[in-house]
Give the backbone structure.
Amino acid sequence: MHREDFPMLKQDYIYLDNGATTFKPQIVINAINDYYCNYSANAHRGDYSISYKVDLEYEGARKKVAEFINADINEIVFNSGATEGLNTIVTGFFDNLLEPGDEIIISKSEHASNVLPWFRLANKNNSKIVYAPLDANLHITLEGIKSVITSNTKIIALAETTNVVGDVRPIKEICEYAHKNNIFVVVDGAQSVPHKKIDVKDNDVDFLVFSGHKMCGPTGIGVLYGKKELLEELDPLILGGGMNESFDSEKEIYLKEIPQRLEAGTPNIAGAIGLGAAIDYLQNIGMDNISIYEQKLKDYLVSKLLEIEHIKIINEEAESGIIAFNIEGIFSQDVAYYLNKYNICTRAGNHCAKILKSVTGVKNTVRVSLYFYNTYEEIDSLIELLMDKEKILKEMI
Amino acid sequence: MDTELKRQIMLENYSNPFHKETKGEDYIKTNANNISCIDDINLYLKIENNIIKDAYFDGEACAISTSSTSIMLKNIINKSINDVKEYINNFENMIYEKEYNKEILKEALVYDEIYKQENRKTCATLPYEALKKAIDKNKEIC
């Protein structure tokens, strides 16, 4: 769908690495160019008209993000991406809160950014990392989560959709149960927000992070959502201009309200404006239309892969557009190199989920991650190339 | 050497690599991994009186890296450190399109056209990074 909107798709690529980043529609590129060409001033300095326009556009982008996930505007903090968001939450909020013996539930299929900050916190505060069990399909269930909750559990931190297994976690149910037990829920939305309708009031997450570049927006811009009362308690990790009200001495520092308090320094203005344009673009297509199309495309891909004997799919049951597989006896990297010779972009590796191998026994896979601009014809081209193992062996080097 | 023969030699060394085995503490162990991909190789060397007496490797890597490691090991066992250094120089010169001595490289000549695939040069040179580290490590021990 909508391929004509993307300059990158005018080239002869079959791009199947949307879990890593997505292509940008012309309308997003235009919005960024418009800022740099026509009103390139700083934000929050409204003394002259082009700077006032920057404020309108920057805060307008915040409003678009808020409406996109059904949050209040002051619950949206712009940052560089999901990784920064998770680090901010862990260090700025939970570091003050956790006590020795407290437990943090994560899973073995989390991305490094939802693992390493928690590891460091656990080491520092003598809290404990607990892994939610993965079922036979490598999915997480509410029952599984319940089975590892104890009276010491303080946090559940999970990706809504994982970037390797592609399973979609029951976040709303997890939040409902967690909150009854006074447990915070932190959600990494990097792989879910770009692909489905998210409503933070409905699912009741405490914190949600995501990245602009995985949803047709520019790189270097991301969002940290937190419930207002929690953001109020989040210590700014970076201090400087734009986040303080006034200061006279080390004893007299007055900070701005949220979210500005959490956005020190000149923000990524072009990035925020570009993300706003990307959200408009996605809303025009409709998030439900995107989800439905991707699911059909993924089902088609799985059905075709299942017909090929030498292919083993790791996650055929996943509900997202992410499929990981291996070809018997061929290293995943070689498969990716082979496909690259035909301008097909896939990703080989562990996809930053380095502890998953202890569960699956599979260290590396080829990953195909779809977006709404991928087509059935592209899947056919991929399948044709994967069908002939001799050809792969011949052409991979 | 024609392209098909080169490919066969690489595939043979990939499918049945020479000396792929994990070794213990009596070997110098070094690792090389590729920042832009997932190749991850451990090299195990036994160096006595400046001679590489024995060499093994383990790890997971692509066909180019694995075969290049296998071929490299065949070429360095029972060679002096000085000869090995010269061998490394020649190999790197071949990869980076400089003058090099073909005779020293033997089977490693199969990578003489790898420069045509920019993103695979680092695959071919990966084991050599581990080898250089091992030689440095040996210097520290001596």
In short: DSSP finds 14 helices and 15 strands in chain A. The interface with chain B takes residues 331-334, 337, 340, 348-350, 363-364, 393-394, 396-397 of chain A (CB under 8 Å).
